[in-house]
Design goal:
Blueprint (H helix, E strand, L loop, with lengths): L11 E2 L10 E2 L2 H12 L2 E10 L9 E9 L2 E5 L9 H10 L4 E3 L2 H11 L6 E3 H8 L6 H9 L1 E2 L16 H12 L1 H14 L3 H13 L22 H21 L3 H4 L2 H10 L4 H8 L12 H12 L19 H7 L1 H21 L3 H4 L2 H9 L11 H10 L4 H14 L22
Parallel strand pairs: 1-8, 2-5, 3-6, 6-7
Antiparallel strand pairs: 3-4, 4-5
Helix pairs in contact: 1-2, 4-7, 5-7, 9-11, 9-13, 14-15, 15-17, 15-19, 18-19
Pfam family, one: DNA_pol_A_exo1
GO molecular function: 3'-5' exonuclease activity; nucleic acid binding; nucleotide binding
InterPro entries: 3'-5'_exonuclease_dom (IPR002562), Exo_C (IPR041605), HRDC-like_sf (IPR010997), HRDC_dom (IPR002121), HRDC_dom_sf (IPR044876), RNase_D-like (IPR051086), RNaseH-like_sf (IPR012337), RNaseH_sf (IPR036397)
Amino acid sequence: MSETTPQTPEALPLLTPAEGVPPVVDTEEKFLQLLDALKNGSGPFAVDAERASGYKYSSRAYLIQIKREGGGLHLIDPIPFGPGHALFTQLNELFNTDEVILHASTQDLPCLREVGINPSKLFDTELGGRIAGLPRVGLGPLLESLMGVSLAKEHSAVDWSTRPLPHDWLNYAALDVELLIPLRNKMYELLSDAKKWKWAEEEFASILLAPPAPPRIDPWRRTSGMHKIKKRDQLAVIKNLWIARNEIAQANDVSSGKLLNDAGIIELAIHKPMTKKDVEKTLRPIGMRARWSENMSTWIAAIESAVNTPEDQWPPMKSGADTLPPIKLWRERFPEKYAPLTHARFAVETLAHDLSIPAENLISPEVIRRICWAPPAASTAALDAAAVAQAMATLGARAWQIEIVAAPVATALLEREPREIPLPETPESEPAVD
């Protein structure tokens, strides 16, 4: 990319918030005081949330951090209040008077919405960094490159459901919002100078308007290691084990991987052990150390049920999900679609390089694949940028993306011979077994 991260002197460690670590807000009286303090401030709200990912089944927030200029820095324990509490409604109303700043907002918005916080105006510093063309967009790297300070990340993977939360953890959490407001201002300057602010505005708005993701069809098919599975009876074991594990995890609010990780499910599906001894023998080589033995009878019952399932009831190797074939199959089986795809991807990558933005942020690779797989009527016979633009909009592309990408993609749809360099798979591609 032509744009580079601004050069800064060696970053200075940010060890504690300027005003110190505030006490945790865990009573209604403290919450009302927090609201009054924030009302006395001005400008946007810096917000972050901590979840217990890897420890709990749910994705609920176990700590919410807020800072506003003139309104102080606050740490809320949402657990004593619960989702939908009237005080969160008041906090949301206050948030909606100005902009809310989040870093990697799609990670935190679901748990914030669960308690009743639903911003109406967003600034995402992580996404802003991507659009600006910065090579490293984690909060730490952005603070180093744009603010000249460094953050310690030693508590990033702790169990935030722990009570009471240790002071060191609270200090770490408070630092995540300490400089988020000046970071936002630096990011805005970069985007404005690069004539990309309108792009960012559209992207931030689209995040808030995006509907909840629909339930995934056959979620058990997302088990890591599915590429090792070659038989339908093995799929039956995976399905049973995944469902059994999910039910236990949800009922006890414990991370699924703490009960039986995906590697264990795959090995059990391949070997189909039917006794406690054989299960242990199967899992021992992969170093299973989790709580799988506590539910031994459940795992064995799930395997037995799958083994005794009639063949005509085994899951198909392919799901009924609306997924496209892997790219590696397009070249041989669908050359009429593969050729335009190679040219469309090349056009997008060229534009992305010239505009200093990641290709996947310039336009979703899934949009390009679907346009090439099912192009608008007549667009493969004559140039029809308008039809391609409409198809992109239907697939969720934003106006700024369509303005830049539609015409080059429309031109690519007329190509009959592929570009020489084969296309690699992309992260958005579905596994072949899906």
